[in-house]
């Protein structure tokens, strides 16, 4: 975990309501390190849909992006923002009422869906099959897949990261319930994965800022509004999530 030191300014609104960041001239962005296509490390740099959106936010505010990768729990609990490890969190973060109690969210920038994935030849052909057979279903902890699995009564097995897909390949779990987009990405690595059922989810991603940081929230929302209106968000989405993958 990276703790930033030598700060030259403080996150939050300035006395005149102006935008303040942890490090002067930088937008410090927290994310996971391995959740493609939203964020992943390539050649020593963080890339992905969320990273491109963060770059647009930084550009609109004459800032340079500084990426910090952290465990998902540190970000979703609000701790990363509260301890000034980052100015914003862009990490495929679902907007929920519970999370709103510890952080503020931007307007949604991505609508998410879930899918139940198994290996070809599996006897599991639906969520109901997984329930009836008490199949071991891998989920990433504290995600929409995790909460939906509990809601459906699945025999869920929690993972801290996307190693659940490796467990599905090796037979450690019988199925995985996760976002359709990363499932599509991992299916390129594991071509014998099959989505047997799409699962409805009221799930939208937002950018998180420290609770009460109205200047940062307004700056983020301004960029999201712009990229939606001028087509930049469509370009970013098509870049990382090709139409034929959906």
UniProtKB/TrEMBL annotation:
Signal peptide: none annotated. Residues 26-243 form the Ionotropic glutamate receptor C-terminal domain. Belongs to the bacterial solute-binding protein 3 family. Keywords: Signal. InterPro entries: Iontro_rcpt_C (IPR001320), SBP_3_CS (IPR018313), Solute-binding_3/MltF_N (IPR001638). One of its GO terms (molecular function) is ligand-gated monoatomic ion channel activity. GO terms for cellular component: cell envelope; membrane. SUPFAM superfamilies: Periplasmic binding protein-like II. The keyword Protein transport does not apply. Its main location: other. Pfam families: SBP_bac_3. It is found in: Cell envelope. It comes from the Bacteria. This is Amino acid ABC transporter substrate-binding protein. Residues 26-244 form the Solute-binding protein family 3/N-terminal domain. SMART domains: PBPb, PBPe.
């Amino acid at each position: 975990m990276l703790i930033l030191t030598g700060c030259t300014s403080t996150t939050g609104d300035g006395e005149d309501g102006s935008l303040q960041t942890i490090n002067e001239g930088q937008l410090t962005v927290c994310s996971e390190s391995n959740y493609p296509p939203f964020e992943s490390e390539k050649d020593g740099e963080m890339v992905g849909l969320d990273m491109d959106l963060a770059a647009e936010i930084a550009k609109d505010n004459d800032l340079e992006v500084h990426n910090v990768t952290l465990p998902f729990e540190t970000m979703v609990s609000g701790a990363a923002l509260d301890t000034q490890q980052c100015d914003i969190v862009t990490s495929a973060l679902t907007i929920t009422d519970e999370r709103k109690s510890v952080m503020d969210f931007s307007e949604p920038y991505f609508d998410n869906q879930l899918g139940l994935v198994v290996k070809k030849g599996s006897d599991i052909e639906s969520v109901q099959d997984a329930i009836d057979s008490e199949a071991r279903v891998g989920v990433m902890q504290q995600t929409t897949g995790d909460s939906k699995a509990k809601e459906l009564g699945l025999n869920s097995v929690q993972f801290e990261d996307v190693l659940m897909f490796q467990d599905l390949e090796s037979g450690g779990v019988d199925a995985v319930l996760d976002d359709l987009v990363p499932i599509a990405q991992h299916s390129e690595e594991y071509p014998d994965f099959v989505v047997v059922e799409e699962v409805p989810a009221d799930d939208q991603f937002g950018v998180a800022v420290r609770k009460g940081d109205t200047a940062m929230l307004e700056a983020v929302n301004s960029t999201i509004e712009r990229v939606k209106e001028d087509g930049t968000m469509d370009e970013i989405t098509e870049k990382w999530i090709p139409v034929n993958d959906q």
